[in-house]
Design brief:
The protein has 170 residues and is an alpha+beta fold. The chain has five helices and seven strands, in the order αααββββαβαββ. The chain has a single domain, classed as Chitinase A, domain 3 (Roll), CATH 3.10.50. Helix 1 packs across helix 3.
C-alpha cells in the first residue's frame, strides 16, 4: 500500500509539473490565477486521471474523488471521531500540508464537522471508510475560494490523499 501511495504521489507531482510548467510564467501570474484558469487546469487533471483508467466519482456537493484503495465498513457521519493520514497538494504538485510532517505519529484525529473544516474536506470525508485510501479533488469554491489561505493562492484546486485509519461513531 505504501508503494502504491508513493507511486500515486509521484504521479500527481509529475503530471502537475508537466501540465502546468509551460502555462505559468511567473509567481505573480500564479498568484493571480482566475477561476476560469483553475477550471481549465482542473479539467485537464480530471481528463488525465480518466485517460489512465481511474474512475473519478463526485459527491453531491461537487467534490471529485478517486478511490485508490477500497476500505470496509460504514462511512463516517458528522460528529464521528476520525483518524486519518493525509497530504495536501496544489494541483501542480506543491505539498502545502501533511499529517506526516505535523503529527508525531503521522495521524490526525478530529471530529467530523466540529469545527467545520473547508466544505470540500468535510464532504469528502463522508466517502472514505476505514482502511480506504482516497484522493479528494476539491475546487476552490469548496475550499479557500478567491482569497486563498496561507500558502494556498486564490482560485486553486486542492488535492488530498487521505488514508482513513479509524472511525469512531458518535
Amino acid at each position: 500500500m505504501r508503494r502504491k501511495l508513493l507511486f500515486n504521489l509521484a504521479l500527481v507531482y509529475l503530471l502537475g509539473m508537466m501540465t502546468f510548467s509551460c502555462q505559468i510564467n511567473s509567481d505573480d501570474e500564479y498568484m493571480e490565477q482566475t477561476y476560469e484558469q483553475e477550471i481549465t487546469k482542473l479539467n485537464i487533471y480530471l481528463d488525465s486521471l480518466e485517460a489512465r483508467g481511474y474512475d473519478v466519482d463526485t459527491t453531491a456537493l461537487g467534490v471529485y474523488y478517486v478511490t485508490i484503495e477500497e476500505g470496509e465498513g460504514e462511512f463516517p457521519k458528522t460528529g464521528d471521531q476520525l483518524e486519518v493520514i493525509y497530504s495536501g497538494y496544489l494541483i501542480d504538485g506543491y505539498l502545502f500540508d501533511s499529517s506526516k510532517l505535523t503529527q508525531a505519529d503521522s495521524t490526525w484525529e478530529f471530529e467530523l464537522g466540529n469545527p467545520a473544516m473547508i466544505p470540500g474536506w468535510d464532504d469528502g470525508m463522508k466517502v472514505i471508510n476505514k482502511g480506504a485510501q482516497v484522493q479528494l479533488i476539491i475546487q476552490s469554491k469548496l475550499a479557500y475560494g478567491i482569497y486563498g489561505s496561507g500558502e494556498i493562492p486564490p482560485n486553486n484546486t486542492l488535492l488530498f490523499v487521505v488514508d482513513m485509519v479509524n472511525i469512531e461513531p458518535s
